[in-house]
Design a protein that fits this description.
This protein is α/β, with parallel strands linked by helices. It folds into two domains: 50 residues; 287 residues, Aldolase class I (TIM Barrel, Alpha-Beta Barrel). It is built from nine helices and 19 strands. The strands form five sheets. It has an eight-stranded mixed sheet with strand order 8-9-11-12-13-14-15-16.
Length: 351
Amino acid sequence: MKTPEDTPFKTRYYRQAPNGKIVCTLCPRECSLSEGQRGLCFVRGREEDSIVLYTYGKTSGLCVDPIEKKPLYHFLPSSSVLSFGTAGCNLTCKFCQNWHMSKSRDIATSSIHYSPSEIAQIAKRQKCASVAFTYNDPVIFMEYAVDTAQACREEGIASVAVTAGYINKEPREEFFRYIDGANIDLKGFTESFYKKLCTGKLGAVLDTLRYVAKETNVWLEVTTLLIPEENDSPNEIERLSSWIANELGRNVPLHFTAFHPDFRLTNRPRTPLETLVRAREIALSNGLNFVYIGNVLHEDGSTTYCRRCHLPLIKRWGYSTEITGLNLSHRCKQCGEPCPGVFDSSEMMTT
């Protein structure tokens, strides 16, 4: 017998097709579904003449993390974030580092029930400054994420999305309306990379990045996982970092993170440290002010420097964070230059 928690949640992003199928319009895949079929994400499917979400209110559990783990370096630094995800994904990345959740075809992966208000209250009790939709992509459970973000906002708690940004225009506008900070994966900078390793389209992700940077007040950071012989060439890094500087802005932090062999891409070695260091140098030379190295310990690549005088402002070692060079106005103690970011919940400008 179904409980209320087991009842699929009716969504609104779909359209009728002339052939009698229902097309899910949440993401660029636009899966065309017959009765009883599920989309590639596996958590959205057709029931009668609607598309429903099977994981609304269901999580794989809650975890208190440092915000730097998302990674977000300029958003409420050194604060705690309550993280959760569900199951499934709308990309098929062969290198997925969270494949046990994002590739799950067992809804039981998300078998722990939490309502949006319960999550907000738990975050409050745990003294978390924010809640993060992470581990698998929140795009596919956007209705649950949006309702949770609204519940959190009522408690003065921020909402963070860790996403690949693979979402259509109309739902994208609704989703990011309730998000305060986001780290968006830019997995590579060629259509061939997205097609071969993710069965997705680069252009759709670039559209989301432009939208968030130019049309919202969401604090944005970008992550690229560098995979040896796939997306780590100096030429590709040159083009990627130049695009971010020109299209998103020089103050958008970029994180280059190290790959480890996993899931269906085990024939590539771990990313050498020198590759990450070289990528950081290229991005800095292309005008980006804040470029970081992740998944490895590297003091220089983890430190936030003043964009004017280069004084160390925020020092990190692993997930240990120390704000050393900023005054109470979040300006450099040495030269007075402001450090871009969100350093206090009162600074969040989303409406």
